[in-house]
Amino acid sequence: MKLALHWKILIGLVTGLMFGYFMKIFGANAFVTDWIKPFGTVFINLLKMIAVPLIVVSLITGISELKDISQLSKLGSRTVILYLCTTMIAVTIGLILANIVSPGKFINEESRQTLIENFAGDAGKKIELAETQKSKGPLQPLMDIVPDNIFNSLSNNGSMLQVILFVILLGIGLVLIEPEKAKPVSDFFKGLNDVILKIIDLIMLIAPIGVFSLMAALMVEIPDYSVLQALIIYAITVVVGLLIMTYIVYPGLLKMLTKYPVGKFFKAIAPAQILAFSTSSSAATLPVTMECVVEHVGVEEEVASFVLPLGATVNMDGTSLYQAVAAIFIAQAFSLDLTFSQQAMIVLTATLASIGTAAVPSAGMVTLVIILGQAGIPEAGLALIFAIDRPLDMLRTVTNITSDATVSTIVASSVGLLKEPKPKEWNDKLK
Ligand code: ASP
How far is the CA of 35 from the centre of ligand 1 (A)? Predict the structure, then answer.
């Protein structure tokens, strides 16, 4: 029987969760960690391995296909404005929900103490990590974007923005030189681009197994439910916010700014969403987001190859919404009342922090430390939300990549580069 890829991944996800659950009951946690989890790690590594080459090659190909530099600046400005707007909407929704629900008021003194005792160590590590990220001046982020050695940046998955800057310059150079000199270079990258897309198809063949392993490992590693109970209202607040973003705000934007059918859009990006959920990493999901958006939504490659890598690196609506709720939750748990201006400040810091958040699992917690510090909320409060962070991370990553896909569709439609897709089934492409 021939099943579509996203169904196979979904089956991997559900059976993985069930398998992990039963292994935990039978006390076979070590078996899962030693013999099952490594397959998940291999799958994530394969995706990450291909992410940097994909960004480099597809971005060069994309930009070299643009007619002139003014088209690039049009794309760039629309993308940045939309990314900033969606992030601000996300933080605002997070703050409004957190103020209405007041999840921090539901946590009693006893649970607070238990959580702080249990997770103080883990929280401490994140706080230490955040220390190293704290800026050394207002223009530090600007300096961080410009590398002094591109080969160092290329060998570091955390330096995505530096790579993007360099590759944009390379693409611009290609557009500006004489066409006959540029042609062999762009032809080379076009060929390489096809090879990389084929490698992604190959990697996706093992996606169901990778997802199965990741979910089984997650199940045996997750803390006991009793610790989570105190956090249920907080978790529900975050989830409601993420659902509003994913299923109301983005479809609303698509309806308002494009004529693209919303149902078709969600069907097209389903594999990327499931993968974001399973890997908790927008960067690892990027290769698949790219394929979904180009081949199934119909966004032309020159738009997708520019908008999506940038989005995976700087646009994290789900993360910033969660940070807003988490900040208020922790403040409330410590009986701190935040003033309106303190909360407005959170909108600003969370928007900026989402730019600096790495697209890897639980990176949002690290930048949350900076937001807490700015707002005068005890950073040790991070220990309160640790137990439930993983599932929320999975969900916010889905929102993050849905936002990237939405913005690329809107930008493509605004410049007339949204075409009727001719979808090929993933599995057919290997024949
Ligand atoms: N895991 C998220 C992502 O990769 C980042 C975060 O919120 O921790 O998109």
Answer: 26
